[in-house]
Structure formats: C-alpha cells, structure tokens
What we know:
The protein has helices at residues 25-38, 52-65, 79-88, 105-112, 116-131, 149-162, 178-191, 211-220, 242-251, 253-256, 267-278, 299-307, 335-344, 351-367, 373-386, 429-441, 486-502, and strands spanning 3-4, 6-9, 42-46, 70-76, 95-102, 137-142, 166-171, 199-204, 225-228, 258-259, 295-296, 326-327, 391-399, 407-414, 419-425, 445-454, 463-471, 476-483. It is of the alpha/beta class and 506 residues long. It folds into 3 domains: 3-278, Aldolase class I (TIM Barrel, Alpha-Beta Barrel), CATH 3.20.20.70; 295-371, no CATH class; 390-503, Alpha-isopropylmalate synthase LeuA, regulatory domain (Double Stranded RNA Binding Domain, 2-Layer Sandwich). Strand 11, helix 12 and strand 12 form a beta-alpha-beta unit. Helix 14 (351-367) crosses helix 15. Bound molecules: 3-methyl-2-oxobutanoic acid and zinc ion. Residues 14, 140, 142, 168, 170, 172, 203, 205 line the site of 3-methyl-2-oxobutanoic acid.
Amino acid sequence: MTRKIAIFDTTLRDGEQSPGASMNTEEKLVVARQLLRLKVDVIEAGFPVSSPGDFESVRRIAELAGDDAVVCGLSRAVERDIDVAAEALRFAKRPRIQTGIGVSPSHLRDKLRISEEQCVERAVHAVRYAKRYVDDVQFYAEDAGRSDYAFLARVIEAVIEAGATVVNIPDTTGYSLPDEFGARIAYLMENVRGIENVVVSAHCHNDLGMATALALSAVRNGASQVECTINGIGERAGNAAMEEVVMGIRMHGAELDAHTGIDARELTKASRLVSSITGMTVQANKAIVGSNAFAHSSGIHQDGVLKSRETYEIIDPSEVGAGVSQIVLTARSGHAALKHRLEELGYEFSGEELDRLYEAFLAMADKKKEVYDEDLESLVNEVEREEGAVYTLAAVQVSCGFPLRPTATVTLRDAEGVETTVCEWGTGPIDAVYKAIDKIVGVENDLSEFSVQSISRGIDALGEVTVRVKAAGGRVFTGRGADGDIIVSSTKAYLNALNRLLSNRF
Ligand code: KIV
Ligand code: ZN
C-alpha cells in the first residue's frame, strides 16, 4: 500500500486572498460543502483575526465539518491571532491552529527586522501558546523556499520539540525549481530530529508556473500533506491546484509511493462552483478542469480518440466528473469525426452521401469556428433538400445601403448543370434576390410568409429562414434554408419552396 497524502485545501484562505476572489460567509459554506464531498482531509477555513467575516466563516465551517475534516484557522506568531483563531475553532470537532513566521533572509531582515535567534524564539513561543488551546498545531515557515537549509532545519526542529504536529514548508514566492524544492524536503527529512513523528506539508505557489511540480517533488521526497486550492487560485499567480495534485498523484502513485483519499469525480463540479462564486474564469486549456481538457479538435487526434480513447487521453474524463471526451467539429475535423457525430445524432451516412455532406460541412466550418449539433442537423436537412432539386444555388450577391438601390445578382444551376445569372433590384436586398430568382425560374407564385430564427449558438449562429409560397392553384409550398448569412438563408429557403412547387411535392 502506498502512503496516504493528506489534502489540505486552502481555497477559502489563500485562494480567497486572490484579488477579486473574496467570498462572503454563505458562499464559503457552499464551497466548504463541496470540499467535504471531495473528502479533503483539512479545510483551512480562514484567518480569523483578519476580519469578523473570516472569524464567522471559520466558526460556521467548523460546525459544518463535524468529524468529517480537520478545520484549520490561520494565525501569525502573535498571541492575539492565536487567541482569536482558537475562539473561532472553539466548537470544532477536529480543530487545528496554523501559526508561523518568515524564515528567509529577506523576511528576517526586511519584513520582521529580527535576528535568527529571535525568529526561533517567536516560532517556539507561538507553537507552545497554540498548544494551550488545541493538540493539533501546524507551523508554517514562511518563505522556506528561499531560506538557508541549516537555519530552516533549526527552526523546524525547535517547533517540533515545542509540540507542532504538522510542519508546513511553503515556497511562498514560487521561486524554487522542483528538484531543488524536493532536495530541501529530503534535507529536512534527514537532518531534523523528530521529523518522522510529524506530518511534513508542502505549500507551493505558482509564480513560475511550477506549483504542482513543486508539490509532487515534495511528495516524492517525503512530504505527506499537500496544500492546494481549487482551480489553483491564490495570492499572485496562485497555489498548487488541487485537481492537478490529486490527478498527478493518481497517475504516478507507484513512482511517488502515494495516494490521496479525494473523490476525484467531484473535481469538475468543485472547479465550476469556485469559478462561478468567485467570478474567476478557468482558462479553457487549464489541466483537468478547463473546457478543452478533454476536447479533441484536429482530425488526426479525433481519428485516434475514436479508435481508442487512450491514444490521446491519459485520464478518462468521467474519472474527474467531466462526462465524456468531446470531439469538436471544426475545419480541421476529418470524415471519421463527422461520421461519428452524425451517428450519435441518429444519422447514417457513408460513401458518396457522406462525401457530399463533408464538403458542405467544410464550407460551413470555414465560415464558423465550431460546428454545433444544430448546425449539423440543418446541414443534413439542406443536403437532403437539394436532392432531386430542379435548381440549385450557384451564387448570390447583393449590394445595398444608403443611398444605394438594393440590387441582387443570382446564379442558379439547373438539373443539366446549365447556369443562368440574373441581376434585379428591389425594395430591399431580399426582395431583389427573390425577383432575380423569379426571373430565372419563371413560375407564378405568391410569397405568403417569411420568418427567420437563430438555430445555433454564438455570434456566428445559423439563421434559418422559412418561407411559404402559394402556387397559382392556391396550393402552399414551404421552403427552408439555413446559413450564417441571412441573405443566403433567405435565398435557399425561397429556392427550396419553388423547387417543391416545380416538382409538385411536399
Ligand atoms: O504562502 C505562504 O507562505 C502562506 C503561509 C501563510 C502558509 O500562505
Ligand atoms: Zn500561500
């Protein structure tokens, strides 16, 4: 059995520190419920001394979590902070106080203006002070990633002796390289007396885009707790993302000698929830939870995935609650992807029919970025409509505006392949098009109805036009046409109605 790595979620504390990500108590409770569904080991619910809102959130989350998770409150190595954290956690079933102090030369010299001796003294005092309230005390050595190895080991050994149960080694500024951060953890594991009796935690920031790599390197070298946030939100460039850490450990559990207790199927839901509450959108290409994480766009990849999902996917999307892999239909998609999607929509096409549809699909995909199901359905209808048509549309062009006279040039191809072009003007561009068509087709009719509706999504949505024309004997023929260009859909619709009239079929 591999080592169990505790997942310490700090979405509600470090994550909430992201500019623009602040949440009120009710919102934090909603997120905390999802963290419990994920089965995180520890919820860092806030920094109680920082505001009455944070205090209340920690208090309510402690109540909510009961026995299901440890609830942690942050404090500086300051008695008042620890008092307030303890008060907020008073009714927690499994309370933890996290206290700590900066340990890097920059923090000692420029921020705290204290000596190394004073730093050790304050750290030890804070841990002893917190121990008066709770058994479970976590010590953080702020900016450990830039600290001197020997001094860091000295501080950590002193706080363990003072009673810390968890020692948190943060790369506060996201400065380290993964190998180097791993070596730092290994150094502590080898050189700190008593470290084998406590939990070693990695808290990594993403300033160089390496937070997850840093956390996994720490795990490989002996850390047994990882601190992370949903979607990687947090100070500046954020923290290690829980979804990445959890899936990284799951994929490489044997090499890392590690597993977590997280229910990964809740990851996508958690990501969407945090994104909607904080208003921080998740980039489309974000690992695990981005909207493109399981979407395949190029023809080569789509062909591979349709043959076997594993050709281009290392994670089954259902494992993280993301449904099924998506085949995105674009101009780069091949026959295989189009056929597959059509089959999913209930259409069976092969051979020449599929080739014809593929041509029409490519023409549409060239104009639109993405071809949706509704677009495909309309394409199928249109290709079917054109079968056996007396006239097909070869070209249509209009010019209109102020003070121009609306003019249309239409070219139709008859069943023998002969093309006829006519130019007409009208009261508007569509009227001009219809007059040009009438001139070519030469069949008496009355346009009795014209309507337009949008049938797909986005700014480049298809507009579908429906027209009804009355033939000389009073019989009504309906025509439909769809295109991203409303003039083209109107042309196709009218032509479709006239073709039906000409062949006298419904
Ligand atoms: O980044 C950091 O060092 C922190 C500590 C408070 C744990 O967030
Ligand atoms: Zn942090």
